[in-house]
Amino acid sequence: MITSLTTTDGHNNIVSGAGFETTPFGRKADEDIKKLRVLKELVAEKKMNEYDSGGRSGDKGPGAENDGNTAPLPEKVSVGGSPMYRIEKKLGKGGFGQVYVGRRIGATGPGALEVALKFEHRSSKGCNYGPPYEWQVYNALGGSHGVPRVHYKGRQGDYYVMVMDILGPSLWDVWNNNSHTMSIEMVACIAIEAISILEKMHSRGYVHGDVKPENFLLGLPGTPDEKKLFLVDLGLATKWRDSSSGQHVEYDQRPDVFRGTVRYASVHAHLGRTGSRRDDLESLAYTLIFLLRGRLPWQGYQGENKGFLVCKKKMATSPETLCCFCPAPFRQFVEYVVNLKFDEEPNYAKYISLFDGIVGPNPHIRPINTDGAQKLIYQVGQKRGRLTMEDEEDEQPKKKVRMGMPATQWISVYNARRPMKQRYHYNVADVRLAQHIEKGSEDGLFISSVASCSNLWALIMDAGTGFTAQVYELSPYFLHKVGMDYGAVGEELLHQCNCRS
Fold first, then answer.
1. Where is the Protein kinase domain positioned along the sequence (predicted)?
2. Considering 32, 165, 173, 210, which one is annotated as catalytic?
3. pLDDT per residue over 291-342, tens digit each?
4. Structural domains in the chain, sorted by start
5. In the annotation, is 32 catalytic?
6. I want to staple 152 with a disulfide (CB 3.0 to 4.6 A). Which of 15, 22, 63, 80 is the partner?
7. To which H or E segment does residue 239 belong?
């Protein structure tokens, strides 16, 4: 299959929404929900299109949902110089077309030269200005890691046709045919490989825009690719960076536009915000939780307010609640991705490392092929292809014990007119004062300003003080300022004697 399947499980999309500045999962939750309710009422009333799970957003619209009103499909297809294919069984239908098996005429043997044929009628909204927009995306991404190849494309009669690799069942099919369950190891493998596929897609400047179980397909059973994972249906893919400048696209928000699938869409997508890499990862997080738990907390809403209610529920559901029956790595992944900023670079290798411990050390016996993820980890030079959270967070030598809040890294500032060097330290605990002051003295820097609050210090060390030495001591008492050359602010006193030559 090459596109989302029509199902009857209640996966629906909407063409409505509301927008306001917020962050997901409980930050200013009450206030934000009130704003959401008010803005929802202000947005022009638009009837929701209750498409099936493969439905699409209003600004692109479904392309082949009215099969009865379009010309019948041809019996045979040949486009773009391709061989002649006979159309056989239907694989699926989505908002941007319908997909059939195509068998090359004259080929013999079981499964000989089967392809997937994706049809989109010329009258569909996605074809208002010529060939489907999806063709451009496949031109840029087709054949890259996790994306099926397009062999031919062209127009025949009233239809635009793509001839593509034929693939196997979707993750939705696998989950549905396995009594609505998946093992933890299987879902962890899916997480690992899906993150690597998104990383490759993002590295080429695109975000998918509709990540969900129906759009992840396995390879064709009985072939070498049967354990490989593929991401399909690129009709909602958009660029997150400008092709010429390489700069991130600008932030925008259109509350009346929704793109994606309600169940798996990010909160930002519900609010009409410009899509970026964070949205694909948030949708992936919901996909993984769904496959593991079998249900998401916001399923079951119906009616015209469905999108609003789902968005409200997503904002009110904490990662702890969402992942209460899941292993810790799933909660950690959700926490990371829902807190990403609009233009922030995701740490794909770190996300993969969260799940690496669940699936075991031998990639060859995993239920999903994770070669792509292993290559990604090797790229960051981690030993044995493993990156653990402990390794990353404990970059300081083991012998160092950090007490209190860590100081920020010092910054050196140079004045262009006269040689002057300054160093700034913030949030320095009492026990760490000495090392900063001693280091500064070695570099010819002495304290010129000092402040304290709640046993944390801020220091400015300056090369332009004219001091040649500095003596200091900590006092548990606040002392009044006297004639000596020292500074004191806060609950404790850093008493310093400065000597000039």
1. 85-365
2. 210
3. 999 999 999 999 889 999 999 999 999 999 999 999 999 999 999 999 999 9
4. 76-164 (3.30.200.20), 169-385 (1.10.510.10), 409-500 (no CATH)
5. no
6. 80
7. strand 238-239
